[in-house]
Amino acid sequence: MRGGAQLSVTDLRRSTRHPVNLPVIGEHRTRGDIMLHVANISTTGFMATEIEDLGRGERVTVRLPSIGRIEAFVVWADGTRAGFQFERIIRMDDFNKLIRSLQPAPKPRSSR
Asked: Which uninterrupted H or E stretch holds 101?
């Protein structure tokens, strides 16, 4: 039996990545809840920093604003960073909502 994740989404490394600063709790099937810090995200996956010893092929489920729960697979890991690929591609309209929700609200203008 072959190990690792059987990914249904084609590896699309050329997807535009958006820098974010998003702490999330990942649900791992054997380790329970683990903290991840999402540093960049695209419609096909994300890079997390401050990870705790995850290996290629491991799966976590994360809850993202405007997206909800989505499963992701580790496709690479290097020290305290790891790249994750979503189980499915996020629709562009949902992804745009996610990005807008993560950007800080503009400061209101003072009326003079």
From this structure: helix 92-102
For residues 9 and 89, the answer to whether their CB atoms sit within 8 Å is yes
Q: Does domain 18-101 have CATH number 2.40.10.220?
A: yes
Q: What stretch of H or E contains 59?
A: strand 59-64
Q: Which helix (H) or strand (E) holds 33?
A: strand 32-41
Cα 85 to the center of its chain, rounded Å: 8
Structural domain boundaries in the chain: 18-101
Contact assessment for residue 25 and residue 62, using Cβ atoms and an 8 Å cutoff: yes
Q: Is the full-model pTM beyond 0.85?
A: no
Confidence check: pLDDT of 80 > 80: yes
Query: Bridge-partner residues for 82, per DSSP?
Result: 48, 77
